[in-house]
Model the fold of this input.
Amino acid sequence: MKRWFLALVGVMVGVFLVPCQVMALTETEIELMATVAATEPVTVTYNYTIVPNSQNQPGATNEPTAVTVEFNGAVPNAGGLAVETAVIDFAGTNYVNTGIYRYTVTEASSSNPAYPATKLAYEIYVRVTEDAGVMKKQVHTQALNLTTGIKEDMEFPHGEQTTYIYVENFADGLITDIGTVFRYKLEILGPLGATYAVRGQDATVNYEGRTITTADTYEVKDGEENYLYVYLKDGQTVTVGLAENGDYQIPVGTKFRLVKDRVNKWHTTINGQDFATEQERMEWLVAGVDPALNKIIVENLRSFDVPLTGVILNALPFLILVGLAMVGISLIKKVSVNEKSRNKKRR
Done:
């Protein structure tokens, strides 16, 4: 019995790759083995369908139709691989005709969006012969890439999907509040030790009379130290997990949230939810594949318990126009009066 061993050879650029192998174990079994390259325990279930070829001889019964490979918190080995297997068994399949029976094994779904199912498929086949009136089965492996139509090493490569998150900050306040810097606490849960690019903040800011050098990376830590202060002015946006070269860095499914830093003179809403105190925290969000779904919008409205010497920023353009109009009217009246005076003198 030949056994085939498939080695993954590839370059990982911003993704973890998952090779999948199919090997003949016995005359009637095929082992499907999946390995996940990871640094953290892996939890994902891959579902596979087994479909007989329409050209197969009729009469076969009790053919296998599906199999799953489950990773339930599987810990990667010293080589950085988590390994799980499943067996496709034809022992209970009954054949009444000799010949070659082909089956397509397709990875149909994944339970974890961070490790999505591939669109590849393998074709395996069973050779059925008759010896002294006894039907004998022998399972072979054959990898046919249904995308390219080329027979090749059997491999299901998976790219761990990544994304990024971003925070947009807005403020409606007094004219004296122009340039105000707001501070928020961003929390991202895992994977521990991961580092994400932070872009969009000013390199240095003046916050409450102190000059602050803002961070350009977020390192995921353990416990209460796992957070990043974000400093933003009105109209500014910060991205986390979007590298300068455009690569996404945060695994899909990662939890994150933004916390109001402290009680202050601003009425703050985060994604439409009111936050009056520092203790109120928004619910955890889950990073989706589309970064547009990972947006946090913060709106700050100046409280009205302020001196009336200020001018509301939203009304400023209107007030300027009114002022200009008043000046214009005054000039027109003055010109009109002067013109009348000159006409009287001529008479």
